[in-house]
């Protein structure tokens, strides 16, 4: 199947909270195409989050286990084009027969059906035929079925039959794992802090994440192990828009709360719960050392407190850094993350 790209496999599709449901549903479908209730399986999510990779991985896995199965991968755009061509060439029967003979159809980016009523009609019939025959349909889309504007209701209702599973932006840990896997595959080694820097700063899209890494490697004539953090920052200046961004209290608050796994708005509340107080005091301390804000502004930001509270917080943090090893590590960790940005 020339349409399947052998590079997209389950093996190199990193699992994380961001994709757990979609990935495991995809795996189930690959083991038993047409034989699960996940028919169609609809994978949806934003640009560059791994829809095509996962959809292709399902197709490749099916071919690996069941080489006789007819699996077709087609982008919605290409399908639409083929349909128009078949109209022009009077080969519409061939077109329909080709798709109806498949055991598995993977159609990528079905949001592109919007506005194309005739192609939707044809696909509606192909879908029904395949579904009735117990064949597997796999779809990807940039939105969940309920938000797909411009698609006919009857087609949408079919899309809702099986399972819709979304892909989210991977968390930091998963982004690091993706980069590591990618480098490992290419036989490249980079210092951990460089990988972390890239993963930290590119947090919207896996394609860009990989792009940054590729750009870094392309620019470098050095032994990759010699790329240090400073050099990486320099090389990625254009890639990472916020390199010279001023650190804000908002950002400090976000980092600290993420680190201690406390809800962001709690820091500004009146609560005296130990872990919240700790997060609040560290946030104040870091705001004093990493922003130009006055004590008064810092106090006001963290829940309308006065400047003496900020002084007290900073003193407390400094004391604890001296006396409590664990606490020192916490603050250092967060500071490191701040410097990454
Ligand atoms: P989409 O189709 O959603 O726009 P792609 O499937 O093209 O996204 O993914 C973009 C890039 O990110 C691809 O190179 C893909 O291999 C990679 N990618 C996305 N998610 C993962 C993941 N979980 N593990 C490994 N690579 C991933
Ligand atoms: Mg895609």
UniProtKB/TrEMBL annotation:
The AAA+ ATPase domain, residue ranges: 37-167
Keyword Cell division set for record: no
Cellular localisation: Cytoplasm
Residues holding ATP: 48, 50-52
UniProt-annotated stretches for the region Domain IV, binds dsDNA: 221-341
Chromosomal replication initiator DnaA C-terminal domain boundaries: 248-317
Keyword entries, A-Z: ATP-binding, Cytoplasm, DNA replication, DNA-binding, Lipid-binding, Nucleotide-binding
Principal cellular location given in the protein's record: cytoplasm
Any one cellular-component term (Gene Ontology): cytoplasm
GO biological process: DNA replication initiation; regulation of DNA replication
Any GO MF annotation of the entry: ATP binding
Assembly: Oligomerizes as a right-handed, spiral filament on DNA at oriC.
Domain notes: Domain I is involved in oligomerization and binding regulators, domain II is flexibile and of varying length in different bacteria, domain III forms the AAA+ region, while domain IV binds dsDNA.
Annotated function: Plays an essential role in the initiation and regulation of chromosomal replication. ATP-DnaA binds to the origin of replication (oriC) to initiate formation of the DNA replication initiation complex once per cell cycle. Binds the DnaA box (a 9 base pair repeat at the origin) and separates the double-stranded (ds)DNA. Forms a right-handed helical filament on oriC DNA; dsDNA binds to the exterior of the filament while single-stranded (ss)DNA is stabiized in the filament's interior.
UniProt record similarity statement: Belongs to the DnaA family.
Descriptive protein name: Chromosomal replication initiator protein DnaA
Organism: Pedobacter yulinensis
Classification of source organism: Bacteria, Pseudomonadati, Bacteroidota, Sphingobacteriia, Sphingobacteriales
